[in-house]
Amino acid sequence: MKSLALESLSKTYFDPYRGTQFTAIKDVSLNVEEGDFVAVVGPSGCGKSTILNMIAGFVPATGGRILVGGREVSGPGRDRGVVFQSFALFPWKTVIENVAFGPKMRGIGKAERNRIAQEYLELAGLGHAADRYPNELSGGMQQRVGVVRALANEPDVLLMDEPFASVDAQTRMTLQEELTRIWEERRPTVVFITHDVPEAVFLANRVVVLTRGNVLAEVDIPLARPRVWDSLVEDDEFKSLSNQVLQLVRSA
Amino acid sequence: MSALHVIWGYYVRFNARWPALAAFIPFVPLVLAWTVVVRLELFPPVFLPGPGDVARKAWELLYKGILTDYLADSLGRLAVGAAVGMAIAIPLGVFVGLNRKAYEFSWPILLFFQAIGDIAWLPILLVWFGFGLTTMTFVIVYTVLFPVVLNTVLGIRSAKPDLHRAAQSLGASRSRILFEVTLPGALPNIITGLRNGLGYGWRALIAAEIIVGTSGIGFLMFDARRAGSVEEIVVGMILLGVLWYIVDSWVLAPIERATGQRWGLVTK
Lengths: 252, 268
What we know:
The complex is a heterodimer. Chain A is 37% helix and 26% strand. Chain A is of the alpha/beta class. Chain A has 2 domains: 4-79 and 156-251, 3-Layer(aba) Sandwich (Rossmann fold); 90-154, no CATH class. In chain A, α4 (110-123) packs across α5 and α7 (197-203) packs across α9. The longest helix of chain A is centred in the C-terminal third of the chain and has 18 residues, at 169-186. Chain B is mainly α. Chain B is 82% helix and 0% strand. Chain B has 12 helices and no strands. Chain B has helices spanning 3-17, 19-22, 27-39, 51-64, 66-98, 100-115, 122-129, 133-157, 161-169, 174-212, 217-227, 230-261. In chain B, α11 (217-227) packs antiparallel against α12 (230-261). Chain B is flat, with a radius of gyration of 23 Å. The A-B interface holds A 56-58, 76-78, 80-82, 84, 86, 88-92, 101-102, 105-106, 133-136, 149-150, 153, 155 and B 160, 162-163, 165-173, 176, 180-181, 184-185, 187, 259, 262-265.
């Protein structure tokens, strides 16, 4: 795991129909320490997904730099693992083949990569589902596979783009608790994009509020770990932090 | 509960127990209706033979060995034509599907030639290649080619961007993405194209055999017309339908079940 730094990142699109420039990201700088968990929240259209797509290398930045462990990156790479809102599992591969995909691309032999994949599947309580196809699993289980697939490739930074937005509310809480447990055990560097304020406060060490392509505020979340919903739902500190962030998002 | 319900119940249970035989059941009323029409002598028997006459004729042709020989000829031509067609069509479709410029350039051409139906080529092919195997193979390859190319292009171009991105950030190179992500994603479309292509190819083959042939099912039917044997023509027609059913349900449908349906890419 390594640190991530964004230096005056910007993104401008050219609109060919209007003949004008559209600025999605103005000037965003952000430091994510090695092993830190940062959540980015903001109203829709604030550019949070654009930022993640730029960090992942899917969309080229029009200005600024992205540094992973101090080294500038461009284009997608295995140093930045991505978890997608759409899960993006390969439907023609079984669960274990999906998780073993990254190691396979690195040239790791079949026995070894299956051992790695199985180990990560156990971490998410998915050992029994190894030979199933993604479409045979519930949404929540599919996204567990999505998270584990990114982790099994040992990225320097884990990028998560509204990963729990398309699962039901109960499953979402379980997945949030599992993610926080995995993070507490392994301390990956995480950037987590969401529009769900309590989710951001529950998971992150720091919440970045984004508005119209700018960083409006950064809020530290000093809540004790391990975090579980049962104790946090009624927690005064959690509630006041959530309110603080929510006010910022609504003012944006 | 009416009698109809009882019959329906028998039919459903029979289907569940003998799925392989179930396909024949819908033909029972059809054959019965055929028998009734023949018995009523609405048409002279010379024009419309009954199921019994046709079955006897089929047995006779089978006994003489003509039927098996002609069948083997027709299926062999279809197999060769389909194999060549696919060998050209799939790589071409992948290339056109992946390459935006190639797509823009070749799409109008593909649509243009698709519109010139297989049989429309026969006059000029006969001038070029004469009455022979080359002409027939050309027609089948041509007919199989377009549905497979067009569907492959569609499959490649409708690939989900997130899957491509996921593979990229998991460290896959472009060639690995092609084989691990793009091609499997396009497979259901390729199979659809193949299904259409073989269906059209089968029809084109019969047409080509009627005009060009010296053997094959199409030739058998046309030759029977000259000899005035209506039974033989009907035998040929029935054979066409049965063979296609076998190819479709014993070869193509299982492939579809094992791929697209299993992966949840196409609905059952």
